[in-house]
Protein backbone atom coordinates (compact mmCIF):
# COMPACT_ATOMS: atom_id res chain seq x y z
CA UNK A 1 0.00 0.00 0.00
CA UNK A 2 1.21 3.48 -0.87
CA UNK A 3 0.76 6.78 0.92
CA UNK A 4 -2.85 7.95 1.31
CA UNK A 5 -3.98 11.58 0.92
CA UNK A 6 -7.09 13.75 1.14
CA UNK A 7 -7.51 16.77 -1.11
CA UNK A 8 -10.26 19.06 0.17
CA UNK A 9 -12.05 22.26 -0.80
CA UNK A 10 -14.55 23.76 1.61
CA UNK A 11 -17.47 26.15 1.35
CA UNK A 12 -16.73 27.46 -2.15
CA UNK A 13 -19.40 29.46 -4.01
CA UNK A 14 -20.04 27.54 -7.22
CA UNK A 15 -21.86 29.58 -9.85
CA UNK A 16 -20.54 27.97 -13.04
CA UNK A 17 -19.46 24.66 -14.52
CA UNK A 18 -15.92 23.95 -13.33
CA UNK A 19 -13.27 21.37 -12.59
CA UNK A 20 -13.92 20.61 -8.94
CA UNK A 21 -10.59 18.74 -8.73
CA UNK A 22 -7.57 18.55 -11.05
CA UNK A 23 -4.98 16.08 -9.80
CA UNK A 24 -1.62 15.66 -11.54
CA UNK A 25 0.28 12.50 -10.62
CA UNK A 26 3.97 12.82 -9.74
CA UNK A 27 6.40 12.18 -12.60
CA UNK A 28 7.92 9.26 -10.69
CA UNK A 29 4.79 7.42 -9.57
CA UNK A 30 1.16 6.59 -10.12
CA UNK A 31 -2.00 7.57 -8.28
CA UNK A 32 -4.97 5.35 -7.42
CA UNK A 33 -8.21 7.23 -6.76
CA UNK A 34 -10.16 5.68 -3.87
CA UNK A 35 -13.17 7.98 -3.49
CA UNK A 36 -14.86 11.25 -4.43
CA UNK A 37 -17.25 13.14 -2.14
CA UNK A 38 -19.16 16.28 -3.22
CA UNK A 39 -21.76 18.18 -1.18
CA UNK A 40 -23.41 21.59 -0.80
CA UNK A 41 -24.76 23.42 2.22
CA UNK A 42 -26.68 26.43 0.88
CA UNK A 43 -29.84 24.98 -0.74
CA UNK A 44 -31.79 22.95 1.80
CA UNK A 45 -35.42 23.33 0.68
CA UNK A 46 -37.32 21.10 -1.72
CA UNK A 47 -37.94 24.04 -4.05
CA UNK A 48 -34.16 24.57 -4.38
CA UNK A 49 -33.48 20.94 -5.31
CA UNK A 50 -31.71 20.35 -8.62
CA UNK A 51 -29.76 17.65 -10.41
CA UNK A 52 -26.12 18.20 -11.40
CA UNK A 53 -23.84 16.18 -13.67
CA UNK A 54 -20.31 15.14 -12.69
CA UNK A 55 -17.82 13.80 -15.24
CA UNK A 56 -14.71 11.91 -14.16
CA UNK A 57 -11.99 11.76 -16.77
CA UNK A 58 -8.33 11.87 -17.61
CA UNK A 59 -7.51 15.34 -18.87
CA UNK A 60 -5.14 16.43 -21.60
CA UNK A 61 -4.34 19.93 -20.28
CA UNK A 62 -4.97 21.65 -16.94
CA UNK A 63 -7.49 24.42 -16.48
CA UNK A 64 -7.15 27.81 -14.78
CA UNK A 65 -9.04 30.09 -12.44
CA UNK A 66 -9.10 27.90 -9.35
CA UNK A 67 -6.89 27.50 -6.32
CA UNK A 68 -4.01 25.26 -5.33
CA UNK A 69 -4.85 22.52 -2.87
CA UNK A 70 -2.27 20.88 -0.63
CA UNK A 71 -3.35 17.25 -0.15
CA UNK A 72 -3.08 16.14 3.48
CA UNK A 73 -1.44 12.80 4.29
CA UNK A 74 -3.85 10.51 6.11
CA UNK A 75 -0.98 9.02 8.15
CA UNK A 76 0.61 11.38 10.68
CA UNK A 77 4.17 12.24 9.68
CA UNK A 78 3.87 10.95 6.12
CA UNK A 79 5.62 12.93 3.38
CA UNK A 80 3.99 15.51 1.14
CA UNK A 81 2.22 14.42 -2.04
CA UNK A 82 4.64 14.33 -4.99
CA UNK A 83 2.18 15.71 -7.56
CA UNK A 84 -0.08 18.75 -7.66
CA UNK A 85 -3.75 19.42 -7.06
CA UNK A 86 -6.09 22.30 -7.84
CA UNK A 87 -9.76 22.87 -7.10
CA UNK A 88 -12.58 24.91 -8.59
CA UNK A 89 -11.00 25.80 -11.92
CA UNK A 90 -13.66 27.74 -13.81
CA UNK A 91 -11.66 27.66 -17.05
CA UNK A 92 -11.85 23.92 -17.42
CA UNK A 93 -9.28 21.40 -18.58
CA UNK A 94 -9.37 19.75 -21.96
CA UNK A 95 -11.41 16.57 -21.70
CA UNK A 96 -9.65 13.30 -22.34
CA UNK A 97 -10.70 9.71 -21.62
CA UNK A 98 -13.99 9.51 -19.73
CA UNK A 99 -14.00 7.22 -16.71
CA UNK A 100 -17.50 7.91 -15.43
CA UNK A 101 -20.58 10.14 -15.58
CA UNK A 102 -22.74 10.67 -12.50
CA UNK A 103 -25.92 12.64 -11.86
CA UNK A 104 -26.81 13.61 -8.33
CA UNK A 105 -29.38 15.60 -6.44
CA UNK A 106 -27.74 18.46 -4.56
CA UNK A 107 -29.83 17.66 -1.47
CA UNK A 108 -28.15 14.25 -1.13
CA UNK A 109 -24.63 14.98 -2.36
CA UNK A 110 -22.43 12.55 -4.24
CA UNK A 111 -20.31 9.79 -2.71
CA UNK A 112 -18.33 7.55 -5.05
CA UNK A 113 -16.23 4.83 -3.41
CA UNK A 114 -14.33 2.78 -5.97
CA UNK A 115 -13.78 -0.93 -5.34
CA UNK A 116 -10.15 -2.07 -5.68
CA UNK A 117 -10.86 -3.41 -9.17
CA UNK A 118 -12.43 -0.17 -10.41
CA UNK A 119 -10.07 2.44 -8.91
CA UNK A 120 -8.89 4.84 -11.61
CA UNK A 121 -5.14 4.57 -12.13
CA UNK A 122 -3.40 7.80 -13.09
CA UNK A 123 -0.05 7.26 -14.83
CA UNK A 124 3.09 9.31 -14.04
CA UNK A 125 2.44 12.99 -14.82
CA UNK A 126 -1.13 12.04 -15.80
CA UNK A 127 -4.10 14.32 -15.14
CA UNK A 128 -7.29 13.25 -13.30
CA UNK A 129 -10.36 15.51 -13.38
CA UNK A 130 -13.61 15.65 -11.41
CA UNK A 131 -15.73 18.04 -13.47
CA UNK A 132 -18.97 19.75 -12.53
CA UNK A 133 -20.41 19.79 -16.04
CA UNK A 134 -23.72 21.43 -15.16
CA UNK A 135 -24.00 25.10 -14.24
CA UNK A 136 -26.01 25.33 -11.00
CA UNK A 137 -29.35 27.17 -11.20
CA UNK A 138 -28.09 29.53 -8.49
CA UNK A 139 -24.95 29.91 -6.38
CA UNK A 140 -24.20 26.79 -4.34
CA UNK A 141 -21.87 26.65 -1.36
CA UNK A 142 -19.99 23.45 -2.21
CA UNK A 143 -17.39 21.28 -0.48
CA UNK A 144 -15.49 18.29 -1.75
CA UNK A 145 -13.01 15.59 -0.76
CA UNK A 146 -10.86 13.43 -3.03
CA UNK A 147 -9.15 10.44 -1.38
CA UNK A 148 -6.23 8.94 -3.30
CA UNK A 149 -3.11 6.85 -2.97
CA UNK A 150 0.38 7.63 -4.28
CA UNK A 151 2.53 4.65 -5.37
CA UNK A 152 6.12 4.39 -6.52
CA UNK A 153 7.73 7.66 -5.50
What features would you describe in this structure?
It contains no helices and 12 strands. The protein is mostly beta strands and 153 residues long. The chain has one domain (3-147). Strands 1, 3, 6, 9, 10 and 12 form a 6-stranded antiparallel beta sheet that branches. Strands 5-7-2-11-4-8 form a 6-stranded antiparallel beta sheet, with no helix packed on it. The chain starts with a strand and ends with a strand. The model has no long low-confidence stretch (mean pLDDT 92).
Low-confidence stretches: none
**DSSP strand count:** 12
| Total domain units | 1
Pairing-aware structural class of the strands and helices?
mainly beta
What is the succession of H and E elements?
A: EEEEEEEEEEEE
Portion in beta strands:
over 45%
The N- to C-terminal Cα distance equals 12 Å
* Largest sheet features: 6 strands, antiparallel
Radius of gyration: 15 Å
Shape: globular
Multimeric state of these chains? single chain
Number of helices: 0
Q: State the helicity in percent bands.
A: under 10%
Please tell me the overall pLDDT.
92
Key structural traits:
mainly beta, 6-stranded antiparallel sheet, globular
Layout of helices and strands:
Elements: E1 3-14, E2 18-24, E3 30-40, E4 51-61, E5 67-68, E6 72-73, E7 84-89, E8 94-105, E9 110-113, E10 121-122, E11 127-132, E12 140-151
Antiparallel strand pairs: 1-6, 1-12, 2-7, 2-11, 3-9, 3-10, 3-12, 4-8, 4-11, 5-7
